[in-house]
Amino acid sequence: MCKLVRLSLILLLLGSTTAHAGEGQQRLDRFLQGLQTMQADFIQTLTNARGELMEESRGNLWISRPGKFRLHYTNPYEQLYVADGRNIWMYDRDLEQVTVKPQDDALGSTPALFLSSDAPLEENFTVEEEGAHEGFQWLLLKPRAADSNFDYVRLAMEGDVLRAMEMVDGFGQTTRLYLETVTRNAGVESERFVFQPPPGVDVIGEAQ
After folding, report:
1. Tell me: the pLDDT tens digits for 1-55?
2. Cα(74)–Cα(59) distance, integer angstroms
3. CATH 2.50.20.10 fits 3-193, yes or no
């Protein structure tokens, strides 16, 4: 799976706001209102266009808005993504390799564009209410940009808590991030958003 597509689901949280509209948007508004930090344990799945499971992984997530996050995949293999506000660091322990890119360059036209923007969702997406199913209230977001690398994003609200995010790409593959636990505005150490490459690993790119 493309690393930046993987990150897009997380980065959507970092700076987005919505206009008050239907029930799903109102729930998302309430979740984002006053959100400064978030911690979560997650399960991520990738299914193909036929609905067949291709990949499943687990990990932990920390967010500090705006613009910082730590995404740690722990199973079945370990990978670490850290956004420190200027750079995105991607560390693959098995490959002993670190890739670093400026955040603005790395995000491109993905949903991560909300990272440094207070623009409402409607400025970059068409937003549709999908109603209630699977026990969630769903929103459908379609990108306005013609060169987007995904077809649409779906957000699932459980009460006033964001519980799942889905991204469907042009090949019909669906990446779903299910947040098992969500903790809002608990203390998160600033050191979690600092990354130093371990000694001896290959570093691709240059930090800003």
Report:
1. 455 556 666 666 665 655 445 888 889 888 888 888 889 999 999 999 999 999 9
2. 5
3. yes
